[in-house]
Amino acid sequence: MSVILHAHFDPLNNRAEPLFDGTSSHALQVAHLAARFAESMIPAQHSSLQLVAREAARMLGLWHDLGKASAHFQHYLHAVGDPHNLEKQGRIDHSSAGAQHSASTIPFFGTLLAFAIAGHHTGLPDWHGDSEGTLKKRLHKKTTPWQANTPAELLVGDRLQQVTRQMTLPPDPFAIAFLLRMLFSCLTDADLLATEAFLDPQRTSQRHPPLPSMAQLVGHLERYLAERFAQSEGEVNRQRQNIASFCRQAADLPPGFFSLTVPTGGGKTLSVLRFALHHAQIHGMQRVISAIPFTSIIEQNAQIYRTLFNPLGEGILLEQHAHLDPDDPETMRNRLAAENWQAPLIVTTNLQFFESFFAARPGRCRKLHHIARSVIVLDEAHALPIALLQPALALLKELVSRYGCTVVLCTATQAALQHSQEFSIGLKEVREIIPDPVALHQALQRVQVRQCGTLSLLETAQRMAALSQVLAIVNSRHHARELFGTLQTLTADREEIFHLSASMVAQHRLAVLTAIKERLQTGRSCRVVSTTLVEAGVDLDFPVVYRALAGLDSIAQAAGRCNREGSMVERGETLIFLPQESHFANEGALKQAADHAWEIMQLPSYQENPLSLAALEHYFRLHYWQQGGSHGNGWDQKNIRSCFQLGSTKEPFLFHFRTAAALFQMTDSPQIPIIVAFDATARHELDLLQRLNKPEASLLHTASRRLQPYIVTINAQEYQTLTNLLAVTTVHERFNVLLQPELYYCSLTGLRLPEEEQEACE
Hints:
alpha/beta; globular; 7-stranded parallel sheet; 44% helix
């Protein structure tokens, strides 16, 4: 080439990265990385798909930056240093050229790849619509000339055309769109890694520290379990050892779908980890991913794993809540800080896991190819929203059938997601790890569940005040705050009562949980009011639990905080009450679950034991399986599957990625993270963050991790209230920070808004 084109320019060091020239050029580096990622995400038994994925990813790497060959882009590159931000603002476009070339060079399949090329900075587009950013409009957009200085050999797609003729794409358009999304992940991760290697080589050098092998993790876990079981006594602990043994045996089975049906208190956390690590080692899988519905369980499980594996060094565990996910705004600085999930053990939320598979933005899609060939543990699998069940289960089927994953449905109640005549979208060929779940359920039955009618706030508080150790679980933060305030008026020693809710930052909750456990273990008085965050995985053991009416699965989880260790002579008591005041945080889904539970509990056959597996199966049949309606629309209420359809020869892929991303939201109200300087550590970290002047990606990344325990999430209305009060500010365009926490954060109950009652906080 007579002219050397550049992909990136580093003005601080006055150096430029070649676009096409030489083996170290950006295009070739991205092509090599993307092809390697794509090949590794498809198991060898799918050899034709693996070959197509590898070649497609290679072409994506070669063609994604073709528009940078224009004189227009080269001028901007050397003038501003980082023109990618200008593309975000719509002022410069280097992606449409590659998309157009792909669609015109490779019939049919090239149009599919054009989605990824067009969206590798701004996000996967819709096919058509009003926006100028749709793929259809970008394929017809006039671009500045770029071909003259581009090597002709890079523009040929003969090899990809050849391999695509040798395979048949899946007939399901959802599966085709899923393949494209995984290829998009390979491209964006490769692009960002190659860019980082040029712009921030120091960070690249720190990205891949030496980590223990899966065999070493397995060996360490086995030594830990052997020591733990040697110190354990009693029937409950004997059953936990049996469960762990069943998990080890099942790990030898081929990859696919599994269920682990273990009552609360059965030691699922470590047992399923035993299955997952052994299974991954035996079958050559890359990592273990634990997806959990509740942040509180993530905090606890992550702490268990961290304590367990800390002796082996750092980098084994990645805990990602998505609260401080460096996604938006999509600048070069925070793109480089985004995680791509390369740790061997990931603990994350259902929201982060599932929404990432329907996201359009590069930052959230980047990690997807690393999820392939993993063991995925869905803790409390029944907690998936009914309205999103069909697309959520469809993506799990894709991961298992084509991308070498194993999925474990881990639940304390009943496997609610398996295929049946009533539940046609359910998962097939699910293997239960426990040989006799009914017998295990009976062996671990330590609680008597009774109904106690309607109770007012005062009546509930009076019953709690009359007991030495008691836990009350309610359905909303507001109800928890009111009940706690009422209990305060009835209790002489306020050190005996505690509040737990998501209004409190994680570090605050951890301190409260530590105090609660200490009082329970030493036999001192302890009365706790909590929202549902304690129901799954939080290791508490009370003789009496009050539970506001909720879904039967939630009631079962509440019962798991009662006589958890089986140490009582008599069974513990879990008492179900109807709050006199309506306190459902979500009147739709939660109230419907409560109504179905009430219907089941009134049936004579279940009144003696409303938490029997038969009762739970009846509940799931009523609450989940029968919600699909005659056409199954209840399982996909937002019609997300309709966003992916096949069209005509001229318009083959009627895919609408951005629309699907907007529709697939696991919470009705988007949650906004707020940093609260709860203690001296938080104040110190926040001060360091605010002092940073134009912080580098690594510094922002470090701040995100250190401030994670000091996050409260609120909805848009609550955020607006704080904004109107000038009680929140934004630091570095990303971090929302609560101002004057002494006014808006209670040391007992957490974040409080002005209209809420001003309870005693000291």
